[in-house]
Amino acid sequence: MGRGRPSLAAGSRRGEIRPVVKSAALGCLFLLPAPALGQDVMRYHVRHITVLAEDANTRVLRYAAKAGDRTPMHSHPASVVYVIKGGRVKITLPDGSVTITTVKAGTASLRPPVTHADEALDDVEAVLIERKR
User: Fold this and answer.
1) SS3 22
2) Residue 123 to residue 87: CA distance in whole angstroms
3) Which pTM does this prediction carry?
4) What residues are paired with 92 via a beta bridge?
């Protein structure tokens, strides 16, 4: 160890971020509120999501995905989801956990704010009504 110099961990190089620092920074992401982790879904300009109506308080989206269509990690505020055409959708959460959900035509659900990525495993169509405030 040289005088006046901080010691480097074995195998690390000057300027390299140590694994402990990387882990701490990654851990802080989970302390952020859900909307801070994902973008507004419309920023991705995916062709299977369109805005049907919007004002200062509410936005109505049409989700009409074909099997294989994917949406990157994004966030939704509290919303109502009405399924027009049912099918299977693979949902990935920010922690990497994956769930395959089957949505049924004619059903409606109240959904809390969520951050996720999705992939349609079947052709699926739904209307999302998002509260902005």
Assistant:
1) helix
2) 6
3) 0.70
4) 98, 117
